Amino acid sequence: MSCVPRRLAAFSIATILLTASSGAVLAQKKYDPGASDTEIKVGNIMPYSGPASAYGVIGKTEEAYFRKINAAGGINGRKINFISYDDAYSPPKAVEQARKLVEGDEVLLIFNPLGTPSNSAIQKYMNSKKVPQLFVATGATKWNDPKEFPWTMGWQPSYQAETRIYAKYLLKEKPGAKIAVLYQNDDYGKDYLKGLKDGLGDKAASMIVIEEPYEVSEPTIDSHIVKMKSLNADVFVNITTPKFAAQAIKKVAEIGWKPLHFLNNVSASIGSVIKPAGFENAQDIISVAYLQDALDPQWKDHPGMKTFDEFLAKDFPEGNRADASVMVGYNVAQTLVQVLKQCGDNLTRDNVMRQAASLQGFATTNLLPGITIKTSPTDFAPIEQVQLQRFKGERWELFGPIMSGEAGG
């Protein structure tokens, strides 16, 4: 008879323990605004209109990628609710859209907002609100400042690192160069220019014969190109966004100027820049790459390129395979998915940044071999390596080793 109460007591204790452990599991779920058992709200700001509208396809690619993820069950059972607004590449509009996303839509984070001027305009707001401004679509060096701006993180290689690599190349291959620099007159253009000057060191003053700024409101940059040629410059460093990059390539050819031409990576897209400018006008231009070029036959049978082609066929048929911005959107979206997976059931803004700052050797499907994503609490620059490339025929050809242009790197 005495064993019955003992069994009941054991059953009661087991029930209590089971209830307690279930409660512990439930207690592990932590949510900030924008996250729940069923969804994760992700905000985004893109220039779908205006002078940088060529980049709008990045947002469209991300939207398609998240639809693909949702169709496969989402992330840890939650669907991504991707809310993307147009800022027309206008900083005041970017501020308006950031406020709408944070205070109106109550997103968990703002992901991959595009443009140095736009991100500069919202950086203080995002950090004061403690909302992640994550994997911004600009390579300005300022995004790697976790001490001052712990809620802002870049993704692509820094602009200064890129132009330091061009400087290194020039000092070795053309030390007597007369350099003409065309740059967008904002934080984006000035960041690239600083990297070039830092890379050239004490030779910058004698080698750079003109620093020519242009405004995004200008309809054409033709007059700037003519002015630079008149100074007999034999190197052209082209720091422009796609619309102006295509204009510059055309005008250089039209006036018979034949400088050694460096084109910043953000305008190296064959689909949105080189093809419109004319393949014949783009021969021997030098740039850098960190992602595979979908038009380069060497990647045809690469597993990552196969999955990219499958994504285009099934999930984003309107995507232009020749547009490098599609490849960017596809790979940066993978990086966010990885971070959200790592968050598990702790979908707080603080944990999003903690996971984003603990990517060690993560590789998206189309990074060039040897390049990986590495972050830490003191390093908010995920991709820090590139490879030089030269335009030949109708495609880019990689050359030289994988390089880092970080100061001292």
Provide an overview of this structure:
There is one protein chain. Helix content is 42%, strand content 18%. It has helices at residues 3-27, 56-71, 91-104, 116-129, 159-173, 187-200, 204-207, 222-230, 242-254, 270-277, 303-315, 324-343, 349-356; strands at residues 30-31, 39-46, 79-86, 109-111, 133-134, 179-184, 208-214, 235-239, 260-263, 286-289, 346-347, 360-362, 373-374, 386-392, 395-403. The chain has three domains: 1-30; 39-157 and 298-378, Rossmann fold, CATH 3.40.50; 159-289 and 389-403, Response regulator (Rossmann fold, 3-Layer(aba) Sandwich), CATH 3.40.50. It has a four-stranded parallel sheet with strand order 3-2-4-5, with helices on both faces. It has a four-stranded parallel sheet with strand order 7-6-8-9, sandwiched between helices. The radius of gyration is 24 Å and the shape is globular. The N and C termini lie far apart (80 Å). The protein is an alpha/beta fold. The model is unreliable at 19-26 (pLDDT under 50).
Apparent shape: globular
Strand order of the largest sheet: 3-2-4-5
Poorly predicted sequence stretches spanning 5 or more consecutive residues: 19-26
Task: List the helices and strands in order.
Answer: HEEHEHEHEHEHHEHEHEHEHHEHEEEE
CATH architecture annotation name of the largest domain: 3-Layer(aba) Sandwich
What can be said about the biggest beta sheet? 4 strands, parallel
Count of separate structural domains: 3
- The helix/strand class is alpha/beta
The CATH class assignment of the largest domain is Alpha Beta
Termini separation comes to 80 Å
